From TrEMBL:
Gene3D superfamilies: YVTN repeat-like/Quinoprotein amine dehydrogenase. Residues 1-62 are annotated as: Disordered. Its main location: membrane. Residues 37-62 have a biased composition (Polar residues). Belongs to the WD repeat PROPPIN family. This is Scaffold/adaptor protein. InterPro entries: PROPPIN, WD40/YVTN_repeat-like_dom_sf, WD40_repeat_dom_sf, WD40_rpt. It is a peripheral membrane protein. Residues 8-22 have a biased composition (Pro residues). It is found in: Preautophagosomal structure membrane. Keywords: Repeat, WD repeat. PANTHER family: WD-REPEAT PROTEIN INTERACTING WITH PHOSPHOINOSIDES WIPI -RELATED.
Length: 426
């Protein structure tokens, strides 16, 4: 793994090189949102007296929904789902549906307009939507800025190819295409930066959420390479993270630490974004696997990994103690041996193959194979919240909440199970 560092010329913010050929965005419409951010953030609230399907045309027959997309919001307290007829927003703790929005495709006389990507902005009323499925509600090459208070789109970004992913911050919109990343100012949709990448069909891109820093990580221009853009310091760093292609990325909220996995799927590596230093390496297993999701805990003490093997792993991280300035006498229910776990062969490191000295997961949760799963850690600051909780979302509509014991390790205990695509939910 090698790193290089340089300071690129950043674009003139007054030049407005917006490639959008026909922007319909009207900046004054976002002013109430900006005022909301500077005062108190108003959560999306359902109207209990309204029709849960306000856009559904009477007389049309509903069929079983097709789930297209699932993603957590920025603090992992909510998640959004995109269906072949609209989208839904759910709360994680406690689990419940917050609101739903169904679209009516009258042109084809069927229920639905497919949503292939939904990106929340914490819990506010602004979302980014991309059409998807067999009958997309919006063109798949457009990002629609949706205001659910007004129940309409208040802006859009158009591109020459399909949108692969969208990330939101309070001040930025980041759009990933097959081989390019665009960074826009949220207020007026002015293009601030564009980045060339290697082929990126998954739209891999992660951004920090802390207000004081803005770190973006995406693919580089060669296999196994990631690019770290620190907009606060105006520095760009390239990290050759793996020999194989990058399959998954995760970034801490403050942008300090990055987790990467390759298409081989056996190792996960954690880097410091400031210097590009490899801080830790953990092993999921010995056989190849497709990594679906990586997630840091809020305290950066744990890392969760999901894959096509049907198992969610939780790894113990030592970067939080080394790099976050935790005092040596800090009391914890996790001793030093748990903080830096290794295999029982670690005393022979350098003698046996690297496999035997690898750091393995401290907890696991078995899931049905054949489905893609997203994973996140439950909130620990809320009163009544379960400590060491993990939330798992499946593309089969499954919602799991489980708990791991960092002392005894082993299998996690399932606390909750729900299915958010069962027929009665629609």
């Amino acid at each position: 793994m090698a790193t290089t560092s340089f300071s690129p010329p950043f674009p003139d913010p007054n030049s407005n090189p917006n490639p959008n050929p026909n922007p319909k965005f009207v900046s004054p419409m976002l002013q109430p949102y900006l005022d909301q951010l500077h005062s108190t953030t108003q959560d999306i609230q359902p109207n209990p007296t309204s029709d849960p399907n306000p856009n559904l045309t009477p007389g049309l027959t509903k069929s079983n929904p097709t789930l297209i997309h699932v993603s957590f919001n920025q603090d992992f307290g909510c998640f959004a789902t995109g269906y072949d007829r609209g989208f839904r927003i759910y709360n994680c703790d406690p689990f419940n549906e917050i609101f739903r929005r169904d679209f009516d495709n009258n042109n084809n006389n069927i229920v639905g307009g497919g949503i292939g990507y939904v990106e929340m902005l914490f819990r506010c009323n602004i979302l980014a939507l991309v059409g998807g499925g067999q009958n997309p509600q919006f063109p798949p090459n457009k990002v629609m800025i949706w205001d659910d208070h007004q129940s309409k789109c208040i802006g859009e970004l158009s591109f020459r190819s399909d949108v692969r992913s969208v990330k939101l911050r309070r001040d930025r919109i980041i759009v990933a295409l097959e081989q390019k990343i665009f960074v826009y100012n949220f207020v007026d949709l002015k293009l601030l930066h564009q980045i060339e990448t290697i082929a990126n069909p998954k739209g891999l891109c992660v951004v920090s959420q802390s207000g004081g820093t803005f770190v973006l990580v995406c693919l580089g221009l060669q296999k196994g390479q990631v690019r770290v853009e620190n907009y606060s310091t105006k520095k760009t760093k390239f990290i050759l993270a793996h020999d194989s292609r990058i399959a998954c990325l995760a970034l801490t909220q403050d942008g300090q630490f990055l987790a990467t996995a390759s298409t081989k799927g056996t190792l996960v590596r954690i880097y410091g974004t400031q210097e590009g230093t490899l801080l830790q390496e953990v092993r999921r297993g010995a056989d190849r696997a497709e990594i679906y999701c990586l997630a840091f805990s809020p305290t950066v003490q744990w890392l969760a990994v999901s894959s096509d093997k049907g198992t969610v792993h939780v790894f113990s991280l030592k970067i939080n103690l080394v790099n976050l300035g935790s005092p040596s006498n800090n009391t914890s229910d996790v001793d030093a041996s748990i903080t830096a776990p290794g295999s029982s062969f670690s005393f022979m490191k350098g003698v046996l193959p690297k496999y035997f000295s690898s750091e393995w997961s401290v907890a696991q949760f078995r899931l049905p194979e054949g489905f893609q799963y997203m994973v996140a850690f439950g909130p620990e600051k809320n009163e009544g919240s379960e400590k060491n909780a993990v939330v798992i979302l499946g593309m089969d509509g499954s919602f799991y909440k489980c708990k791991f014991d960092p002392i005894s390790r082993g299998e996690m205990i399932q606390l909750e199970y729900h299915n958010f695509v069962k027929p009665e939910a629609f």
